[in-house]
Amino acid sequence: MRALITGGSGFLGTCLIRHLRDRGVDIVAPSSRDADLRASDALDRWRGERFERIYHLAAWTQAGDFCLTHPGEQWLINQQINTTVLRFWAEAQPQAKLVSIGTSCAYEEGSDLREQEYLTGTPIADLYTYAMTKRMLLIGQQSLSQQFGLRWLTVVPSTLYGPGYHLGSKQMHFIFDLAWKILAHKHQGAPIVLWGDGQQRRELVFIDDFVEALQGLDDLGVENEIVNLGAGEDHSIAEFAALLCSLLGIDPSVVRYDADAYVGARSKRLNIEKLERLLPDWRRLSLRAGLDRMLTWMEPQFRTKTHA
User: Fold this and answer.
1) Cα dihedral 117, 122, 125, 127 sign
2) Which domains does the chain have, with CATH numbers?
């Protein structure tokens, strides 16, 4: 099999490429230097080649409060990226199955977060623009499929975690931000101050578990559907912090909270009944074991980056 991957240099992309290559898949994964997806012709150099899969992972966003300060750019850039990929798929690779990544923030806060609700209701205001670009991506897939008979699969992930994340920026996903601050306390004596009151809830999926489930859905031939891919359980930020402290030998009572800081959605636990029907034997790493693996990789990275 041959696959084209956008966003291949990201956290998910590097893990997916590793798993696919282990399966013998021939991969083309252009970087943004090779193909600036904001340009409508960015993928035209591969028009003459044939792909069985297009994995569309690329998106212009960051964690934290990034969406609050870049709504206009997020709309323009992500619409450009998605249109470039959809156009290439429909015009040059109609035989390929498009596998894309959705976002849990597309669901209306307070809903059941079931797949049939992905396009209904109003996403949380802080993440509205990014959420709507992901909704528009899905509508684009559905429209092209309806007119041209194309095949697609969209998976909606919980927050992904594990080794290999790009560390050290000011806009890391919450679990890496928590771990970074706790490591800074352990190695530098820095205070641990977390955003919010600690009661906002999140769920995590270990990165390799996610990729294995994604491949499992593809192996089953699931197509023209959206599937939530979550852990089935969530925890408060305070619980995550306490577990990280325990793994690093830190007294969790030293953690402080800034209740005035950006919080985002209060809860984003995905309904995974559909996933469990499709993949009843999917096995997930326990949260403690997954965080331990993440910290085992992350702690040397922290020492290297902070002492460079």
Assistant:
1) positive
2) 2-159+205-229 (3.40.50.720), 162-202+233-268+286-306 (3.90.25.10)
Across the chain, the runs of DSSP E, i.e. the strands, are 2-6, 26-28, 53-56, 97-101, 151-157, 159-161, 192-195, 201-202, 204-206, 225-229, 235-236, 255-258
Do 16 and 54 meet the contact criterion of CB atoms below 8 Å apart? no
CA dihedral sign of residues 177, 179, 180, 181: positive
The burial of 204, by beta-carbon neighbours within 10 Å (0-12 exposed, 13-18 middle, 19 or more buried), is given as buried
Query: How many C-beta atoms surround the C-beta of residue 21 within 10 A?
Result: 12
pLDDT-derived band at 305, boundaries 50, 70, 90 = confident
List phi, psi (to 5°) of 195: -70, 140
CB 43 within 8 A of CB 84: yes
Lowest mean pLDDT among 41-45, 128-132, 256-260: 256-260
3-state secondary structure of 147: helix
Q: Is 53 left (phi over 0), alpha (psi -120 to 50) or beta?
A: beta
pTM of the model as a whole = 0.93
